[in-house]
Amino acid sequence: MAAAQPWKRPELADQPLLKKLNDELHDLRLDAGFPSARAIRDRVGRDAQGYWIVTHQAVLDAFQKSDLPQLGRVELIVGVLADDARRVDAGGEVDRFKSLWKRAVEETISQASVRPPADAASPVNDPDTEDWAEPFEDARNQDTRNTGGSAEEGPSADAETPFSADEATAQFNYAEESLKGLIINAAQALWDDKDALRVFLGVVRRSEGFVKMADAVEERRPANATFYGVESREFEVDASPARSELVAFRRCLNEHRLKLKWSFTDMETQTGVSADAWIRWYTHDELPEREAVVAFAHMAHLTLENHVLLLGLWDAAYEVLNAQKRSDVLPSAISFEEAWAMRDHATPKMWALAGVGGDDVVVHGPDLASGTAPAFVVAGPAGSGRSTALVNVALSLLATGTRLVLAAPRPSPLRELADRGGVMECFTQGDIKQDRLQEILSAASPEEPIVIVMDDAEIFAECHAWRLLKDLLQHGFDEGTALVLGGDEEELRSGFRWLDKVRMAHRGLLLSPQKWNSGDLIGIRTGRSINGPVTPGRGWLHLGDGKLLAVTVPR
Hints:
This protein has 555 residues and is of the alpha/beta class. The protein has 20 helices and 12 strands.
């Protein structure tokens, strides 16, 4: 097997800020042990439809091409490499690269805007003139690639009619051409930056001199974009909660639209849905009406397979948007007593209350006596309500007569339950002795179960009882034991010894998830759709059925 090797670096002597970004990428890969492009691709993973989120060729391009890579790709690649390099703050590393990327963008835009024009009296075929015009011609003709690696037409300006040298002085407007080039470069470089791109089309349209160019950009590759550097928030719209699903859907729709060479006016003619509606759906991260998609598929004469795929992607985005709507109407607060009164009195003995939500706003939670593994994960950052959720689980299990073992190595509301009837032990140190835990669990049986409820579980990764905990995750159903653990999502994701086995349960509660791959902890792909600011008591529940449910955690 060939040894890992560094990749060739592009020549970027005239772009010091882009070179800095590229050098840092190569250095981070070195610290990560020179993983291959396919290894990085595999670590980034696939989307909900099974497509690679970033292809191995896209990974290579980010390192080896002299073009500015897409920000989304940089974030994903850096996230993987930072984990492999064991950087303490992987999120901070991503933010650092994002800052480097934006500085490189400013450099790209600045160089595009200040390039000197050819002498007006020079012949049109003068080499200097051709060199200056080349970036704009490239901008008109270049194909850009989406994250899946398929070709897609990029933004372009209307083709210009060649003019003679005598006409050059009259027709050439350096300021206009410079601004045109700046806008085109900004659109190309920043097209997929969900944070920076917001108002590009709106800003361009406000200038009468560029209405035609804005129409061309909108017609060729519309998006909810912004002209980087514009401070105004007038045109800004919130990113959709179903962004990743919408991207996958739009990519599929756009692929067929571009093959047919349909403009939005053509789409109006073919589908009967107005061009304004199609443009709004593109520029505002909105999901088209299903009837419009069906009409498009019919008039485009899609094969059955492509028809089913397109509608399947639409359904996935619709489900996420609906889940978000259900989250928006959840009660802001509810007490444990109120939530407990809502339960079905026929619930099993080892059923645990996790949250309140759903279309009917009822209580939901796992049955710890069934599933793929006798475990349930509660993950979230500090201040998200993780300990409160564990207390709810403990109280609900005690109320049904289930005995508990509590573990809280740091100050936690769990400790306040230590004197409750049914609590057999409360470990408050940073270790759990195997002999003591084995003695307690020996009294468990399927008829008289014992559940361990553990806060800050990452502290117990290498406790003396780690083998016993690992065995519990494999044989707990037979022995009448189960485990409910809480911890920081980043710490749990990098867990070892026995902690990595909790993912076998494929269920859990995510509170204010911060990472695009947070769902891996609870057995479901989430992307960035559910990420947001830390909101205590609001979370996403997965019970192993493949459905993500927005819930409020009782307080």
